[in-house]
Amino acid sequence: MKILIVRTFPTIMDLNTYNIQEIGLAKALAVRGHDCGIIFYNGKASDRIEKVIFEKGNVQYIIKIYWLKGCSFFKNGFMPSIKKIVQEYDVIQVNEYDQISSWMLYTRQKKPTVIYHGPYYHEYAKGYNLKCKIFDAVFLKLRKYKDIIVLTKSEPASGFIRSKGFKNVYTVGVGIDEDNFRLEETVDCPLDIDTSKFRLLYIGKIEERRNVFFLIDVFEKLASVYDDMQLIIVGDGDDEYVNRFKKRINHLIELEKIVYIPRASQKEVALIYQRSKVFVFTSNYEIFGMVLLEALYFSIPVISSWNGGASVLIEDGINGFIMDTFDKEKWFQKIESLKKDSELYNNMKKNAHLKICESFLWDKLADDFMNAYVKAIKQWEKNNI
């Protein structure tokens, strides 16, 4: 089967520093014998084709990436060349029901099309809520769409999509590509090995949505009680917000209580995970949170606010904790419980890795996507005979 995965978001991806979901899925599908292509937005640069070559079981596979020239309008990517490329494939996968380019593909149905959707309604996501309200009024109901097959990243996303009238909705989650974390060469890690420290880890953007100032409040309380407590922060953001955040943590950096790393490659991140004890994620709203998936893969118990990813990845009290409040004392208590109870901590470590390996590797999820593609093709053939 020839499968085309279309990412319509108007962001230019960096294949070296980001765990890209489209590539992880395409690799798992290619290993199953399918011909996979991926469309990425390329801004004002000209169209070009890049081939990603990888090996599995001593067999070489190739994925074709189409970098397409386009324009951006209210976080919608428009790439004129999509129309021609679509004709070369048997089935199309688009991201998000509310992307206008996605809508044009899944409603026109020139080829069988599946939607892969992540966002969901949340009171914090006011901009997205408004965008969907406008999209639904202006675009959604102009054409038939209710029978389109939709795969989602979480149960909250499934409920959200069903509320729009879609009937064939299935929760599949998100996978991880193990190849991104295999260290086949010497990598210099910006974080040293120090087993005397109880290291908490946060990886993500430094921004208001991620609630990073609350994270510091929790950490300061922990550090005031435990001398060996250390927080590792990996991530960057808009200059103004980052500068304000750095002023807040500078004294803790000077005391070596916090280690701040603005950027790290995937290989470096793999080592940082391995040198940390607990992953702490205080985000106000998160579509999924690949870092939760990665942390669990590296056997790190996760303490996270409730969000799409946490709802499917974390079994509360088994491989981590899901927090339904931003009460500093309650977050303190959960982290402290993992520091003080080694049996609880070690059980969570074991269960964390097991959960991902059993259910959330792309190799495991590929069958769910293939089932959706087959259903979409049968439905399309029925409607077009």
TrEMBL record:
Q: Which residues form the Glycosyl transferase family domain?
A: 192-353
Establish whether keyword Phosphoprotein is in the entry.
Answer: no
Q: Which Pfam families match?
A: Glycos_transf_1
EC numbers:
2.4.-.-
Report the superkingdom from the record.
Bacteria
Alphabetical UniProt keywords? Capsid protein, Glycosyltransferase, Transferase, Virion
Question: Which GO terms label this protein's molecular function in UniProt?
Answer: glycosyltransferase activity
The keyword Lyase is annotated on this UniProt entry: no
Identification of the protein by name: Spore coat protein SA
Q: Which organism is it from?
A: Eisenbergiella tayi
